[in-house]
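Lab meeting prep.
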Amino acid sequence: MFKQKPLAAAVSMAVWSLAALPAMAQEATPEVPMQTVEVTGIRASLAKSLSVKRDASANVEVITAEDVGKMPDKNLADSLQRLAGVAVRTDYDEAEKVSMRGTNPDMSLIIFNGHAVSSADWYVADQGSSSRSTSLSLMPSHVLQQAVVYKSSQANIVDGGLAGTINVTTRKPLSQKERFSGVVSVGASYADLPGRYAPDMNGSVTWKNEAGTFGVLAALFAEKRHVRRDSVSRFAYGTNSGWDVINTSTMKGITDESLAGTGYTAADLNGVRLPGSMSSEFVESVRDRKGGMLSLQFKPNRDLDVTMTGFHSSMDANNHGRLSSSAIYSMLLGKNAPLGGTTAAAVNTSHNGQQVFAQIRNPVIVDETTVYGHPLKVLKAADIVFADGTSPQYVGNSEGFYRDGAKAESSFLDLDAKYRVNDDLTVKTLLSTTRGVGQTKLDQGLTLARYGTGISYALGDLHDAPFVQYHNAGANQPGLNPDGSGYTIVDRAASGVKTVDKEWSAQFDAEYRLDRGIFQSLESGVRFADHKRTSGRRGPAFRNGITLDPVTGRVISNTPTPLTGWQAFPGDFGKDLDGPAGWDNTGFTYTPEGIKDYIASNTKVTSDAWERRVNSEIDMQERQSAAYVMANLEGERWSGNVGVRFTRTEVKANIATPIPAGACQRVEPGQAPITCAAYPGAITDAGDATAYFDGMPFNPNAGILYYKTPTKRTFDNWLPSLNLRYDMGNDMLARFGVSRTIGRQNYNLLGSGFGTPGCDANGCRVTGPNPDMEPQTADNLDLSWSWYFAPRSIVAVSVFHSSIDGYPKTGAVGSSTVDLLDPRDQTVKTFFINTASQQGAKINGIELQYEQPFGKTNFGFTSNVSRAKTKVDDGRPMVGASEWTGNVGLYYEDAKLSTRLVANYRGEYVNSTTAPSPTANSQGLSVINGIAMPTAPTYADAVTTLAFSANYYFTKNLELAFSATNLTNAKRAQYRYSEEEQQKLDVSGRQYYLNLRYKF
């Protein structure tokens, strides 16, 4: 399952270079101190980074401002992914979330100037995910001065990074050489998939007084880019999404007669895996990022240094998604529910008053092995069709959603002061406030059902689009044909989401010089942070409902399907997905204007309170307190630190809890809320998506009412750490680190509301939070060796181990219950709560790093590779964990030209949201071919990307910069139980940037 071909190539190149290392080392001049090497640009940045890495007590990786200036990077995540052991989650070909050493992004802590930064997400699904991971899509790379990645912890680092901590420092004005200087960059970006240009501009100016005691740095940026993603997937409505097994007892169209001449009987197909749907998706977006940074620094003497930094970034990211999907699973079960429902109550197909079932013709079955090592049979190709002469039945859907007002913004303000009281005592204080907002004002769209007589498909390789062809389903445009084929509107939706994350913190640190034996100095400090997280949805009320015929499932209400205001998929849709000749890559959707006009005309104004959807809300406050003491040590040829940090986490959550039906009544929009005697805290004026149609009497008992249950928990943790650095001589260093770290649980596991109630023969269940979940802790061991055999050169090996306690075990049925309404029979029943529990996990890994210039030439080479083996107690894979990551880079630099080519590899990993819901990665079992095995999550397959940059200097001050990302136009594939089960495949195209920079 774990393909390593790209990685093998990278390793081979590294091995080849290592073979040449002794000769190159002989050419170098190690007797010349690194500090005296006069180089600029890429070479200067490498020297700076390696110098910081070499001097650090802990095991760190470093990236400097020159690195960013010479790399093809548009945000900090792009820059960080070049480092050993660092991987990123990429959406629409832009790196956003950063993870370390084979873990989920939630386990890594990113801080700016020593404090947390509230980030935000631009995409509607991420906006409501309640992840702790920091999205770096708002952080342009040119604000960076230096980023230090701490792989081994120490007591004076802010707690919260279970796998590691990344401290990003921004530029300071007094660090600049000139009194007055700046840079202006003007250019454009070009996205080749949508074929669109956009402006790309940024600039900064620095001034300091003649005495060099006060300075100002101001930076502005305005960067726009067009985005498009073409996809094929198994996504669809109802239970059509994903994969399932053939069951001839319920899929009654599969008979020996229908399979005549194929060599199979109906019994042969039982247990064979088949796709529930064949779908194509098409998303377009414009990301418009604007913002700036202002830094004021006052340093009147060598004893006092005060810096205030303010940063703000916002990104408008309206996006338009389209989907064209089939309904294979529904067709085989003989169901005609136009949104894919397949339960017993779902509407049956109907032909001449009789239920009809789709048949499987011309099946192609292959043998495969699951990710768990079990045999698997997969239906790779087939015709899923109704019997000849059957009238058109439900065969799929088309939808279009326009996310208007999609936006993310992040800002912080910090005041950092350092004062040297005397030769022995230095004190520091850091005050900060930060706020992040992710919002989509209105996620609005229309869904149409498609009617026809069948679909043919043939799955190819994991990285190729499948063959798809519909039968007797009409053209891809809205409206029904006289024979009943075609499209008709069956659903519409509109709601908005807003998540606000904010924090203020205060920190005081002191360092006292001891110079007593091995004890060089003693550091201590305290920190307090008050963090708040709120999230929720709101949605307007529709004027009228959509009524379906209870027998045929067809729309019978007066809900006309708009026949204008639509557009077809572009003619080049899927051109880079390598689909087979003749595959159906067509589709249609309504234009953004058409969608907005339809939703506006079909919704009405009620009240702010009525639009509220309480069941989706998260309302939390988290207070973090910490104190630490750390001794800095030094002996002959060795140094290090030893310390302990105490943290207290106080979590308060107001959890949306359902009220038993009939206990309280809802009030009509515009009316004052009433107090419910049984539940005084009942929120009686919120609509929670309850129908409120024109001309219909208001029903105060419709839907589910909620009240907020307050919870409060306090968790204490002691975090000891030890780091030792030993100079082995001959420019070789060894490091040893041992520490305990914590990572706080995602917000939704602690304080989300109850949702997705359901009942079956085994009882009733509902998802819910677990406020008793303690923070995760990890006991970490890190051992590394590095050899700085020449200027700007290093060979390094690190081995590491982490033993995690408290890793979330999602989807566990607990003993807690709540009384809810069973929607099947409208009676109150006791529901068991599906929630999260905790378990153990382990990570073992090794990292290799090698970089050096090619002798005395202007060429150089960088490379690293990392392997992290993860193991979770319940045997399930760790979400977001890649076993293999690697980078290979080549650079050339002279007085006029600077170029860099970088390949980045990330191995496969479980592709889930970084904040899995209480039922994500379910703990249940699936029976496939008679074998009970764990239910598999979705895997993202390995991917290799290639980026290039070139900078040409016309003069010392005038530079032309070109960069390109995703040069190979990598396809990103996903699968489930095996690579034969393609779940999704998408491409985002290449991005090109051309800028003219003037420095003054």
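Slide two material, second protein:
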Amino acid sequence: MRHIYPLLIALSIFSFDAGAQKYSKLLKKASGLEIVYGSSSMGHYSPVKTLVTVSGNRQRISRIAPDDVAGNGPKFPQETTYTDFTSCDIFQTALLPDSSLVTSIKHFTYGENLQPAGDTTHLGLPCHILKTSINSNWIEIWYTDALGNFKATPQPGMGIPEGVVLRVSRNGSYITEAESISFPVEPVELFPSGWGTEMDPNLYRFTLNNCNVITVPVFDHASVRFSGEKAPETWEEGITYNTGGGTIVLRKVSLPEISGGYDIFAELRQFSKGDAYDRTGSVFVIPTDKELSFLDALKDLASVPGFDAADGRHYPALVSTPEYAAPVELMRFFTGFGVRQFNHNVLPGQKWVDEVLYKTDITSLGSFLHGDVWIGAYIGNWDANGHDISLQLKYYPEGTERYMKALPLFNTVNLMEQAGQQYPVFLGNDVLRARFILDEDVKDAQLLYITTGHGGWGGGDEFNKKVNTISLDGEKVISFIPWCEDCATYRNNSPCSGNFSNGESSSDLSRSNWCPGKVTTPEYIPLGDLKAGEHEITVHIPQGAPEGGSISYWCLSGTLIYR
């Protein structure tokens, strides 16, 4: 939106390069100053200008933006900054998109933390150089005291000298500097008649930064526990369901219809209400654009297509087919050992968290995150009290245009384990195969791939490095070992973790791409441009053999994203 601030009647726009001695006559009749500042970042100049209007001992800072800068995105706060150089107060005000007015007030001291660093000139005026450091950023300020008793600065938060600031540089790369100065004759009242709601400066900035964030609550303190609960006869909107034995919580939510200019995050908070173990967790979307979906599987697992493995077993619901779409995994996370419920366990040097926050960027799956959508969350556990979770999706405006088309391929997370779904153990003598059909040629195809290995004993795949090999249409694309060695970082999330005689704890141990109390990071595997027609993705992992009653298996999910 263009902000037009009419300039006061000016006697002249003065070029000081013609000689600084001429300004004294202009200053005698001037009631103030008007200074237009330009800014640049890493040598790139912004089309938005800063206008500083000075009248007597007060100033107002506002923006001048061309029409084409506004765009068609969210309406952002209209912020104006005022400074009273007599009372030494800075007033920041903002008109929010909901038309409310908020203000914060800071007091300043002239020259505070500013150190002299030499002299220079700007626009033909003699300037003094001051330096300071703010939050590890080096700030350089050029100001002149050759403009009478007037004071002005485009960035009062950087420090205020007793003069007119003509240039501010941050780390030598971010520069704001005066481009022109005019000398109005008639005084004006710069300050508004009212200030709206006064806020603490930190709350004020938080309010401005977040006023356009769209937050969609999905689950609020939902219980995820083993209860034997099953799917209803019919699914209804507005109801939060426990299903799949009680360890899946599910709800249909209305998500905003937005363009690609948003970054989207899933934010889940979890704590134990009784379960002491580290458990597999997953947040997922259920596509319903095909004849069958995971909603049908929840009612009758055998009703949906499955994967026929070389071991002769049939594994329903794991791979997409022309009739069925597998769940799209938004986030894989792993609970810590008993957070909150077992915080009474005292261990020197450890301070247990009260809940674990899992937050991850899901923008690449934005094509599934608008309109009416079924969203589920799962924590595999056999405890009657289980876990408490709260989930929300956050949409942050002005993100990069990263939305791509997406096609669900496979999801072997045994989401219905507590309802009788067998473990996906077929990789011991087979590969995972997922076929898909493209109706048109696509650009920049990628496999969004989440992989974690399981088998929690010394010889199990949880604790042994295994190569994952991805192939497309029979040609190997990539081989890599998914592995996490930073699990000890999250020790405060696991008050019930077992402690060993060598000083280590179970939650410290490295694992096959996961840690207790942590989100698993997806892999983005480039597949290149693909032609229309049928294709096949295969995943090969040398899964370990069973030992006694213990088995290894892999939780895998894959979504094709493309332009």
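Talking points for slide two:
The chain is about 5% helix and 45% strand.
Residues 201-210 form the longest helix (10 residues).
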